[in-house]
Prior knowledge:
It contains 6 helices and 53 strands. The protein is mostly beta strands. 8% of the residues lie in helices and 40% in strands.
Amino acid sequence: PAVRRPDMAIARQVLCLSAFLSLPHARAEPIRYSVAEEGESGSVVANVAEDAGLAPAQLSARRARLASEDGRQHFRLDRGTGRLVVAERLDREELCGQSATCTLPFELLLANPLQFFRVEVAVEDINDHSPAFPEEQVTFKILETSNPGSRFPLEGARDLDVGSNSIQAYSIAPRNEYFSVSFGSRSEGDKYVELVLEKPLDREEEAEVGFSLIAVDGGSPPRSGTTQIRIVVLDVNDNAPVFTQKLYVGQVLENAAEGSVVLSVVATDRDAGPNGEVSYQFSQAVGQSHSSFAIDAVTGEIRLTKPLDFEAAENHELSVRATDGGGLSAMCKVLVEVVDVNDNAPEVVVSSFSSPLPENALPGTVVALFTVRDRDAGANGKISCALEDQLLFSLRPAYKNYYELVTVSTLDREETARYTLAVTAADAGSPPLTTTQTFTVDISDVNDNVPVFNQTSYTMYVRENNVPTVLVGAVSASDADEGPNAKVTYSLAPAHPAERPPCSCISVNSENGQVFVLRPLDYEQVRQIEVLVSASDAGTPPLSANVTVRLVVVDENDNAPLVLYPSQDSSPASSELVPKSSEAGYLVTKVVAVDADSGQNSWLSYHLLRATDPGLFAVGAQSGEVRLRRPVTERDAVKQKLVVLVRDNGQPPLSATAALSALLLNDFSDVLPDDLLIISLVFVSVLFLASMAAFIARKVCKSKELKGGHVLYGTGNLQSGLADAAAAGTLPHAYCYEISLTTGSGNSEFKFLKPILPSLPPQHSGMEGRLSPPPKLKKQRKLRLPQSGNGMFQLCFSLF
């Protein structure tokens, strides 16, 4: 509801009252309704328009509204229907408290003409509150001597509800035999609640009594409230202390430290407070036994004041008195037994011990003999021996308390050179005492390992022409033995016992295995040397091992190229025939050279060093082919001299020269009148003889193939012959030509198709140099001869 100023509300109330009193049409009896509390807002109370005899339309037309004396609007009027509805939640206890009735009066006011209707709404109570005690727990202290029938008042519970919804009864839960509850009203109307003692209390039987007091109202369903009642029974000194035992027996070890607790005596007093507080003290001494003990007056603990001796007294008897605060007392006896302890450890006495032990000792070899003893008796004197974690040794009982330490398997010094054996002797005491005897067994070496090289084979390198006694490497071998058995010496050994001694050009240092070459080596004579090096130890008997040492001779550039063709020792020098009609690129000849070195030292290159006309010829740097650089002209000299430089690829490079000459001719007739006559005669003779021999052989073997225009090929194995001759140093320089004889003209022609000169393959056992094979000729050489028939020949000749 809206907030209104107090003076305006009072003025409005006075105005309404005066108007009501002066209104002739006001009803004398109010309209009464009832509604249950806690109803929801908007709940319908009744149709007040119908009960007032008004039509709903009049309510709006006459501006009907509700007015109350306190200004609070608990209800509102629905003008459309004339219904009276709850405006807010109604709480009867808040509005009317503990009043037996709760009525809310207000007026229904209408205007034009002014008219009032008195309305009263009774708020009916519902059971929405539970009984509640002022305290959750109430404590009473009652003497155990209180008489039955004694009453102990309680403050009752409160219930905000009224009527039958208020508190109707009290009860105790759980029920007990000591108390009941009394509930009622006195003459002046006050209600009371009391606890009534039904049976005498005994604090010693039950020091406290607890239960719940429950208040129940009359609602439906009923509600209840609970408080806890705690009854503390007050003591009266009517009980003397009582020990839990008449005789206490305790045991204490003879080595127990000062202050150790022997045992505790316990006396209980059923009384409480000072009457139940018990103190302890020794009553009397029996043989002054108490001088070794002290008792705690509060806890009853008996402690040692000095160490005990089992041999002096095996037990002690004590008397203890317990007294409560009221003077009542009781007594008990305490018997303390002294327990002997295992205070002597076993002893190990070694009779014999062998160390070092050879590694070839047989299983069962005795290493040590010892005995064990313990000065304790009984179980404390029983001894057992054990060897810790050893697989190669074991203990073997001998006689009584004697034991032998023996080997159980073969030993290997190289695997383990020293064994630390721990023999533990333990008695059967509790806890057991132990003694550990350590045996350190050193294993002596036996020559049972051969030297082992660090490589399966060795490869060492030395350059040819080396200086004498040059160091080229070292071999190394180790021996797993020690001392003299591990001292390794080196020597050269023959491959087989029956063979002759090893090469005298190699020596091995006997101490450190260094390998020396004693004299210079020549790569062209020997490429590698293999020797056996033996490593022997100094054991008895000595053991040895062999390893292969391969000495590889590295080539040096110490051989100049050797010109094979054209031969440089012939007199006069050979001449090459070159037709003047030849074009540029015409193959004149090929310089062939070899180098006895290997690798890049044998790689040859060819260069034109000098020439009659340097611009006419060119030399292939890799092939050695001499070709025309340009076509031959009439101005060129007929006889051309050339010097070709052959150089290897070594550092520094070595070289050789090849001198050759060439004749520039129109045909063969041009050369006959000159100084070439002798050469021509020789050439023609050799050519004729070779041609006839080849022709006859060819005709006999394959007569059917001898027809015009066919070609005959030689079948000789020139390559193998060249290789053999080169190895012997007498390589012939052969040139072969295919000769074609044709018919139909006054002259026949020799066609020099190609020189047949195979290249020399590299020899793995000799020089590693390589020769470039001469390429095929692109131009044909033609030599006109007088016609002598048809056919074709293969003409070969050699220059030495």
